Fold each of these.
Amino acid sequence: MRRTIDWADGAIVIIDQTALPAEFRLLELRTVDELVDAVKRLAVRGAPALGAAGALGVALAARMGGDVRADAEVIAHARPTAVNLAWGVERALAKLDEGADAVLAEALAVLTEDEELNKTASRHAADVVLAECPRRPLRLLSHCNAGQLATVGWGSALGVVWHLHERGLVEEVLVDETRPLLQGARLTAWELAQANVPYRVQPDSAAAAAMARGMVDCVLVGADRIAANGDVANKIGTYGLAIAARHHGVPFVVVAPSSTVDTKLADGAGIAIEERDARELTEYAGVPVTPPGAHAFNPAFDVTPYDLVTAVVTEQGRWTPGENR
Ligand code: MRU
């Protein structure tokens, strides 16, 4: 598959994730405003892909001239939770004094590295899963989308599935639909179908019941930010999954490139959690599903305490808190 996000002819080109699975459509983003809008609408999403978006956004701003640092600030704050966005912005911005070409070269390096790092991290994580879970073939549970679409290429948590599937070791993936924006049902299921991996979609609320029935050997998730003590911010519902996994003795494995570790934050309490528009809950496909005027609590992410996590795995292997890398 082509890269989720790339650079071509002076524009950022993304796979429009709002259109999948109905339509595979590319979007060309030619201004910083268009990029910021795409990030806010989740046309490009997932922590590692947002890192690439941040870096390419600065490259776009640098080519256009203007106040690049002010543009960079706007890009870095388009979404608050995934540390990768600001990280990508900072990496590209560090080259600004060397000119627009140097900024672009750095952004393209972020893209190339992303694919390599996720491939390596997910290979290490596949080894962890095989060590933690005796049953073969494996029944895995996925939440949100941590696949190719959430990265430049390959994927993090879903990347583990690709490695294991190549070895014939996957019986099925239970895919949490991931309310309210359905990244699991729309995107993860689409990726699994493309790769011919057996899967079933389930309501998020079925995950604990699936574990209780002994249908899950391992929970695999990505991360948007990992604090220095190992607390993990990821898609809303991840924390509940971790509690259920612990209750049922199911390993809970987090896979992310090390750029997702925010060593500046002591623990998860300091992670900014994005709250999204109430209409994501009060409407379904534009049709109201609540009484008029209903208020909503719509956090996009939650924080899983590290003591519920079996392993955090990066491209450097199993990561433990205190490792400053
Ligand atoms: O709101 P989203 O779709 O950007 O949320 C994405 C997630 O929560 C992913 O699990 C996370 O970014 C890791 S992706 C490799």
Note: Residues 42, 45-48, 82, 144, 146, 150-151, 156, 183, 222-224, 234-235, 300 surround MRU (CB under 6 Å).
Amino acid sequence: MFSSMGNEYISGQQIAQELGCSRQAIWKAMDELRQDGFEIEAIRRKGYRLIGNSDQFSKSELLYQLNTSHIGQVIELYESVSSTQIIAHEKAKDGAKHGTVIMAEEQTSGRGRMTRQWSSPKNTGIWMSTILRPTIHPQEAPPITLVVAVAIAQSIEELTGIIPTIKWPNDILVGSKKIAGILTELQSEMDVIHYMIIGTGINVNTEEFPEELKSIASSLLIETGEKQSRVKLAQLIWEKVEKLLDIYEKHGFAPIKLLWESYVQSIGQEIQARTLQGTYQGIMRGITDKGVLELELSNGRIVPIYSADIEI
Ligand code: BTN
């Protein structure tokens, strides 16, 4: 109703006529929108005007014009949780559908990769865990993290015009600072995936980071100088994840790999890969069709790296 209005007032009568309902129904709908977090000004003889959305997520806004079949069609929204990953695991075990998203305005114990913490201050970012039930073999699961990294990079580019880079396997950076990270957790048996949880943390409107993160983390607000729509960004990500997952399931990783390489940092550069088995130094040659990083050591040997922290 408000999407085509710009910043103007629209009378209750006009809305009622256009939608073919009573003035009373409009009044009730405005009330519900306000409860959902929309700021709507109402002035006698002028009508209603959408001032802006508050800093709260609302399900109706997240679902409005969302162009997906599954991802984001079921949303569970929380004010404050320890970690959306924990809730997503519980919901998945209870049978939550493919594409269900658990979101929170704040996480008190957000989890990062390699048992790190993930800072998730209130109302500033997108802290969400998506439950996926892909119809693939467990061995085909690791590239899904890279699929999601591409979807996030494309969405940030579309929303802000900034071209982010991807640092293998799944950090999204602007310049040298991290904007987003992905934590993938898999519940499977030898032959079957029960479910995957894709945890995504995106620093959208964070104004300032704690001292220890200042030199390594940034937000879209800091990088663009403007507050960004968390709702629009979440919708873009869901739409792109759904599209890219479909490509991956039908055609394998090769088409996604090309997209991933267009955002990736450091191919052909000297890097250090810190793995649980030890640290390797060499030239990053690229990734395989399974998403595994290939590192060329000084003796010319190529080592496959499955999981690591990369230093450039
Ligand atoms: C990383 O880069 O280390 C991954 C960070 C993942 C953070 C997200 S925020 C939503 C979800 N819940 C968590 O506790 N972690 C992930």
Note: The helical segments are 12-19, 23-35, 59-63, 84-93, 143-160, 220-224, 230-251, 254-263.
Amino acid sequence: SSHPSGHHSGHNRNMPSNASDTVEVAALTGDISAPADIKFELVAQMREVTLASGAKIEAWTYNGEIAPELRARYGDMVEVKLINKDIAKGVTIHWHGYNVPNAMDGVPGMTQNVVKPGESFTYKFRAEQEGTYWFHSHQQASEQVEKGLFGSLIVESRQETEIYDEAFTIINHQWVTNQGDKTAFGNQDLIQMKKVEPGKKIKLRIINTHNQSRKYLLQGVDYQITSMDGMRIQKPDLLTDRTAFRLASGGRYDVVFTMPDGSVLFKLGDYKNDEDPGIIFYEDTPPANPSFKKESNLFDPSQYGEPVINELTSDTEFDRQFKMILGNKMGFYDGKIQFLWTINGEVYPNIPTFMVKEGEKIKTTFINKSITEHPMHLHGHHMTVLKKNGKKVMTPWLTDTLNVYAGETYEVAFIADNPGMWMDHCHNLEHAKTGMILHLMYD
Ligand code: C2O
Ligand code: CU
């Protein structure tokens, strides 16, 4: 895996090209004068990698690996040196869901220059959110993420408030291989078997890097969802073993269960499809014919645990209110007529920028008038979900990537507390490529 490197880098940090004169540069970089507590090096490189089934991928990777994991502790000053070995169009690293200072956000042409072959860029930020995150290149992201330029960022909590005996990071991704498309947990495209002692508390850190939302089944035990998008749920209810849950593209859930006597079956996708990857946790002998059952209900974050308490409620007086009508139309892209994905009828870069001032309370309404779901991802801030389809949700929750299905409306809010220029876009990266991006800018 990606070992923290022990040497100092002769880095050349590019200054943000769009920093307006009125914004202090320190606000954009954060206070990074303290020495790093932990350092990593990620070398972007082409590499053929092989899945468990033997299928081969002409992958683009960090460090030649599928989904390398960076692990830090809450409070650490983290330094990550990105070196581009041979990715021709250049790379960056965006810390998805991690609300880093703007200059560290990894958006080429906006917060930094793209890192070309032979060049490097050093990211440095304080780990001020615990939990399960991921990172990926934001240069031509739909192609680069699909090919493998991503990994996980795990920040362990400061106090041992969350006790578990063993944790597994599960990144599901859809790979293009020499045997066709394969969905895998990391490089595991088959059902895996894991022996676990009864009574052990197991945590699954689940990350969806696929362009669409995915459903998961966990059976044989009742379980809890303890975090969503890295944000801890207060008093998570126990979910019955036939409860399926669905993760937005780019979203993360931490799932916790206590190993029973017997087996626990976990898989991606539908109960009938055994092409999808899964993990069977067993006590002493793996079950001969593990079989999944149809789920009886679907997890609903709008009524789970306790509502997140912050200064944002549906009765808040907002300083600004934005509306994002998500739509689609036919139009020219890449010289051909195809589907374009629109916000308020326009395609990036023609969608007007949302302007905010530091300290303001902002409400955004997503209205999906298109034919499919859109996982809406805001950089640099977490959103508090307040209303769904016009009605207050029972348990407002925090998210960085909210899946909005066709026909749905959501009201979300955030505090403008991270100055800079940020993207707000659909995390179906194909949709982002063909239009569905706007900018949020502090003036
Ligand atoms: Cu995970 Cu703008 O991206
Ligand atoms: Cu979309």
Note: The chain has three helices and 31 strands.
